[in-house]
Every structure is written in structure tokens, then in C-alpha cells.
Predict the structure.
Amino acid sequence: MIRIRDISPIPNTSPSLSVTLLAARQAAAGPGVAIERVHVRAGTISLETCYEEYLAGPYILEEVVRAERDGFDAVVIDCAVDPALRGARDAVHIPVVGAGEAGILLAMGLGDCYSIVTVQNAVPLLCEKVRGRELQHRLRSVRAVSISGFDLVRGEEATLKAVSEQARLAVEQDGADVVVLGCTAMSLMAAPIAKCLGVPVIDPAAAAIKLAITQVEMGISHSKRAFPAPPVRVPASR
């Protein structure tokens, strides 16, 4: 049995939603995989900006380290802006997969170009992350709905309609072959939007789960040349 810890980088402000998303993550994982979903113990109620990423970072790293200590096979950071991803990979040896990166990598294997649809406040941070990984060359656009991540999780019909419209424009106006949803709270929207558009629409959380499983099954993890363990620093004596 493969055990994956799915880490939400925000505190659990909606237990019912967390249960719903856990069910979606477990469905994506399939048989032979156990998903445990945890939330950070402190931080911000939404994670869309660089400031919020820095506030949440220590608590994300805390959960990543605990996952390795608890014997989990891999970790998924359940957020499309991949908060604290590099630091998390430095900290442990088990695979650590970010939802945003996994979604984009999958999209690039399904078409020549892709677009991202996210929430308004997350656009600058997402663009920064894409450029930082040099994944911008096949990016057609980053579109956004005028909804915060906190409000997005309410799951209203108007929200689905707004996200669907931006995805349609990404395909018809921007020329995207594939659409990546730029917020893991949008997970349940991927299938209905794809059905309407006729192109792949990627749920980044599901992509991350699948990539984590693949790494575990292949017996590989991130390179410690790229993500070296932090040195042990001894305080200087006075």
C-alpha cells in the first residue's frame, strides 16, 4: 500500500469541503493507495500571494518533515502556486510534488501549448513560478476569474460558469491546446469544463497525486544535487 500525505497549506476552515476534496484525491489515486489529507496548523485562510506563501511556509515545511517521519511514501502540496516546494524538497528525501508544477508538466505532454485559469490575486505569483521553472515558452495565457480562492470553495454555479468562460477564452482566443486549472479548489470543475470545451482540462491536484504515485512505484525522488539537505548549523560560541 502506497501512503501519500496530501498537505493543504491553509488551516481547515471548512471541514466539509476538506472531506469532499479528500474523496476527490482518493478517487484520483485509485486502489492500492491511501491518501491522508492534513491542513497546516496556522497561516492564512487563502494562499494566493507571495506574502501569504511566506507566512504559510514554516507550517508547510513542518508537515512535510512530519510526513517523512511518520513513514509516508510521498507528499503532495495541495496548492497550484506550489508554496514552499523547493524548501520542502530540501528538507526530506521522499518525493514532494507540487500541484501546479505537476499540472503544467502533464499539460505539456498533451498539447503544444497550454493556458492557466486561476483566481485574480494568484496571477503574479503563478507567473513568477512558471518563469522560475522556465515553463513559460509554451504558455499561451494566464486568465483569472474575479473571485478569491476563499470564495471559490463555496462551489456556486456562478463560479463554475466564470471559470468555464475563462477556459473557453483561453482556447478560442489565446489558442491553448490544454487548460490547467490554477487553483486546487477548482478540482471538481475539471471534468465538466473539459466536456464542454472538447480539450484536456487538468485538475492539478489529481496530476500531483498521479505523479507522486509514479515516483514511488519507480523508486525515484527529487535529486539531492538540485535540492540539497540543509546544513546543520551550530550556534557560534560567545
About this structure: The chain has a mean pLDDT of 93. The chain has nine helices and eight strands.
